[in-house]
Amino acid sequence: MYSTLLLAITNPYSPLDGTMRDVVIERLRRGVTVEVLVPGTIDHKFVRQASRATWGPLLKAGVRIFEYRPALLHAKTVVIDGM
Fold first, then answer.
1. Of 20, 23, 50, 27, nearest to 38 (Cα)?
2. What is the chain's mean pLDDT, rounded?
3. Torsion angle of C-alpha atoms 54, 34, 2, 71, degrees rounded to 10
4. Per CATH, which fold does 6-80 belong to?
5. Between 31 and 42, residue with greater pLDDT
6. For 18-30, what is each residue's pLDDT tens digit?
7. Strands 64-68 vs 6-10: parallel, antiparallel or unpaired
8. DSSP label at 33?
9. What is the pTM of this model?
10. Strand runs labelled E in 6-58
11. So where are the chain's domains?
12. Contacts of 8 (CB under 8 A, 6+ apart)
């Protein structure tokens, strides 16, 4: 079940930098549902490992991270409440 507010992020590299991570975690505490879509397949294993290394605090805070596997994902989007 989703909260009233939804923040959806698509990013091909690291889901969030330190500043954005802190803002997202604060929004989670306010009841915002946060979902991040990242590529399931990536052309550089180092980038994938570096990205996954940042997931711990996000997952612990309640961010839902999904990997897109059907094809290469290179989109960069942020959708806030459908906008």
1. 50
2. 85
3. -80
4. Endonuclease; Chain A (3.30.870)
5. 31
6. 898 898 899 999 9
7. unpaired
8. E
9. 0.82
10. 6-10, 33-39
11. 6-80
12. 34, 35, 36, 37, 77, 78, 79, 80
